[in-house]
Specification:
This protein has about 350 residues and is α+β, with helices and mostly antiparallel strands. The chain is built from 11 helices and 15 strands. The two termini are about 40 Å apart.
Amino acid sequence: MKRKIRVAILFGGKSAEHEVSVKSAKNVADAMDKTKYDVSLIGIDRAGHWLPPQKSAALLGATSVPSSETGIALAPGENGEIMGADDLRGQRIDVVFPILHGPFGEDGTVQGLLRLANVPFVGAGVLGSAVGMDKHVMKRLLRDAGIPIGKFLVSTEASPIPFARAKEELGLPMFIKPANLGSSVGISKVTDEATYDLAIKEAFEFDTKVIIEEFIKGREIECSVLGNDNPIASVPGEVLVHSEFYSYEAKYLDENGASLQIPADLPADTVKLVQETAVRTFNALCCEGMGRVDSFLTEDGRVIVNEINTIPGFTNISMYPKMWEASGISYSQLIDKLIELAIERFEWQQKLKTSK
């Protein structure tokens, strides 16, 4: 009998998006074909401690990962062997499926660790993860690649942007957000100087760099991308926001905050433009495996890229798997393909020389 592939689902994390990660991991674990995969769960608490599989398994019914004095680790060069877990002693992980959102998980840090541990992992590598997380670097690369983006400014503690300049260059309203975060955490819509000052202060609570963006009037269109060297795009979906904007509350807490239309009601030529733009974005940012590209569709038919998510949500209402399902790839088939892509990339990397 063919041995099952041993997959470790890595979730939780030291991030403001911790709860979303837990929900996503539960869905991935439930959807994995247990006849193909031997699943191990590795939860990371809010302090950054990695928890053994038995303790991690109990966390998926909760919304957060409790602290623990007993930790585990992936050692560099050990080809996926987990240290410190009695129930995995002597065993090796074949592939890691990171379901980590935000800093310390989606930004290249964990991806670098997994490269050092010499184990395949799902999703973008170190470079794609890092530039996909940093909205400032992301926008500069997209701009240089000729991909349409909105106007933006960058504010830091050392070089703050006064309200008058932001208003002059971007107009009102405008959006303020941490440069390295997702799930709409720390994002504010600004209409005057008072809300501007409050929004800047809040965004700096989550990051040392803040992005200030122009308001773009348009439909919120998303598109999933899948692949390594020859990525493909799903049918687009549309986020129909019923609140002021697509905030964290509208995404995850308020059941009436937004609704999803998949596939989006778009003419064929616009669907093609959205898909082509999503793949161009994916390639320009050196991404691999998976990504969800979020764009605005203006009244005059332009597609303006907002951002990419290199580890999109996998909850039961998340757009990434739902768009693939509408494209003919089921949730379990999507997981299979993502794992295949991870192993494919790893095998290619193993053929590269590391010395003369």
